[in-house]
Amino acid sequence: MKKMKYVLVTGGVVSGLGKGVTASSIGLLLKECGLRVTSIKIDPYLNKDAGTMSPFEHGEVFVLDDGGEVDLDLGNYERFLGVQLTSDNNITTGKIYQFVLDKERKGDYLGKTVQVVPHITDAIQEWIERVAMIPVDGKEGPADVCVIELGGTIGDIESMPFIEALGQFSCRVGVGNFCLIHVSLVPVLNVVGEQKTKPTQHSVRGLRGLGLTPNILACRSTMALDDNVKEKLSQFCHVSAEHIITLYDVPNIWHIPLLLRDQKAHEAIFKVLNLPSITEEPSLMEWTTRAAICDKLHEPVRIAIVGKYTGLSDTYLSILKALLHASVACGKKLIVDWVPASDLEDMTEIENLDAYKAAWKLLKSADGVLVPGGFGDRGVQGKILAAKHARENRIPFLGICLGMQIAVIEFARSVLGLKDANSTEFDLNTRNPCVIFMPEGSKTHKGGTMRLGSRRTYFQVSDCKSVKLYGNRKFIDERHRHRYEVNPDMVARLENAGLSFTGKDQTGQRMEIIELPDHPYYIGVQFHPEFKSRPGKPSPLFLGLIGAACGELNAVLQSGLENQEKVNCETVNCPSNKKPYPNGYATKPTNIITDAVYSYCNGVHS
């Protein structure tokens, strides 16, 4: 049986250097070399999972198929690697300690004193080994390589048990099976313009003092490292210059795998892991083309995101990625206008007129409006006003989770005339509860008690925009995260007034998709389509929003998007390929997705 290879990615100096994107890009690079890759993210916080944390604390909560509420970096892993991870792929201090304490309560430690070493450290190692063997790419058998990202920064007190465990783990798996890549900062002082190596030197010294020695340095900087800087780092950090990689600032993150490839990061990893030879040279042709297209786009499409946490973009990271995937597919340059929902409300007009005017100016100038999910009543009235503006002015609108619920509330108030229509989340005593607490939900425990993970939605209408966007399927599987739902007792009245419930669950009692048939694009969904959007395979609903926002929805609906093959530079008029058009068509296809790629590649290669 082959031995699993492990690549550990750590971070030093400061947080926010992009370890998650680096780990994802390394995984992609190894995958392009012909290896099967899985990923694990270690978060040293005491929470059992990310589900109960404010987005201001840790960014968005990413939801997996199995209902796991995990760190947003797992979203990067799924998007880059095209895999489906499980909640066990996210290790937290809370999970480890609960696991050990549960064993202690059962008497599994046979009366021993339970300690951080060896019991916690052993549990960490066993967890890594167990999860690494679980296939995540839809194939049989374990992966070849497991990429592990250690969250936080070297020196953080909460990560010490994990550092110790990983030091032991490197000995446990043996030389040739463990590669440590340390992501660090090489700042450039504006005063002298010199790249300073001292922060990285100290970071590596601290890492070595904790029992881990880096094999490869990935240095974040504003520009490529000078050769003399690499030599200095090599001398003081005991890492060969060939194993020092620069991750300098790039226009978009799709360039990161290309930077790693161009600097032969895969060869360095193969050397450390004693892999005999590279199965395939990583061409990354599709990623090269996509990154170049993204850089070249100039025709804008402007989307207003009306939300509660607009001050921190990581709160809506998957939504931003899904919008980007769709806009690139449509050949448009995405411009996101962040509209604080509360700034649209009447009270803000009284208290802060400038903020009120600025918010409404952004909303009215948008080509499309997106209202994302959220919790709590702050900004709800502003979201309702945004939905009303989009409905009355025929502006393309997509409401997700709470965004769908507020669209229902707005419709009930404005069209049915139920002025006090509301959700019981915001008004427990409302006489017209359009949105209610789910019967199976818990009112005493918050963590892990929502309707979570992949759930099936059945289309109720054969001739609607959402079913066409999904390729005329009978049902779809999308990920959920909510504890409130549309009141089924209100559905008949809403439908009679013109609101169409085009998607429901298997019971027919839980509303999943709403549409306004006579509106250019007005769709609300209870699920979170952003979590399954991928580069080269954008979420159909986001693709519909962007298509409608730039006046090309009919082209999107006609193109069979869900079944559209990925188009890359290899299949578009390249000198090495005689196919004149994408997918070998004899004539140029009338498809806005292939058009965008064709136009770029034809200009480059012809």
UniProtKB/TrEMBL annotation:
Its EC number is 6.3.4.2. It catalyses: UTP + L-glutamine + ATP + H2O = CTP + L-glutamate + ADP + phosphate + 2 H(+). InterPro entries: Class_I_gatase-like, CTP_synthase, CTP_synthase_N, GATASE, GATase1_CTP_Synthase, P-loop_NTPase. Pathway: Pyrimidine metabolism; CTP biosynthesis via de novo pathway; CTP from UDP: step 2/2. CDD domains: CTPS_N, GATase1_CTP_Synthase. Keywords: ATP-binding, Glutamine amidotransferase, Ligase, Nucleotide-binding, Pyrimidine biosynthesis. GO terms for molecular function: ATP binding; CTP synthase activity; identical protein binding. Residues 5-275 form the CTP synthase N-terminal domain. Pfam families: CTP_synth_N (PF06418), GATase (PF00117). GO terms for biological process: 'de novo' CTP biosynthetic process; pyrimidine nucleobase biosynthetic process. Transmembrane segments: none annotated. Residues 313-546 form the Glutamine amidotransferase domain. Catalyzes the ATP-dependent amination of UTP to CTP with either L-glutamine or ammonia as the source of nitrogen. This is CTP synthase.
